[in-house]
Amino acid sequence: MVRRVQISVVGFDADSCTEVAREAAYRVGRAIAMEGGTVVCGGLGGVMEAASKGALDAGGHSVGIVPSADAGQANRYCEFVVATGLGKGRNFLVAYSGDAMIVVGGGVGTLTEAAAAYQVSKPIVTVKGTGGVADEWAGRYFDARRTRLILGGSGPEDAVKKVMRELSRKGKGSAKKPKKS
Questions:
Q1: CA 102 – CA 28 distance, rounded (Å)
Q2: Is pLDDT above 80 for 3?
Q3: Minimal CA–CA distance to 159: which of 132, 179, 181, 129?
Q4: How far apart, in whole angstroms, are the C-alpha atoms of residue 79 and residue 42?
Q5: DSSP secondary-structure letter at 45?
Q6: Which of 92, 94, 144, 147 is deepest in the core (most CB within 10 A)?
Q7: Which domains does the chain have, with CATH numbers?
Q8: Is the C-alpha dihedral spanning 40, 41, 43, 47 positive or negative?
Q9: Does 81 have pLDDT greater than 90?
């Protein structure tokens, strides 16, 4: 069995999510599923819920890593739930569980997730035009070490295309399942 590529999708929570970010996250989740990948997210509302719904609507999979010990806290579109009981510490699990990360909008929680992914040199692509962290950091490095350039996608599908291209450069190959003979 071949492990599917896992893409962490991070961004605005339910309280601060804009309609632009929500729509972009839905399209990101859908595009990841169409590429054969799995969405990994924080499992709650806003960007997390929209990306999970997009993945499921396209026949894909979604993993929600929730901050509480209660799996029932996850949004209804999370097919698989990891109840951590770690509070905001779960942001590191979200970052490390993906082979790469896509950022849609986002505030300080999103910034911690992206910084964790950056520290371990995971590819990060933002969806430009969705506000917050995504717009602030596209085309930049987090620090003087210049570990990995944070790429910006012109839209949701472009962000997914760029993240898949970065993964293929790392030897992760295509996310699509091999055809049966």
A1: 8
A2: yes
A3: 129
A4: 13
A5: S
A6: 94
A7: 6-169 (3.40.50.450)
A8: negative
A9: yes
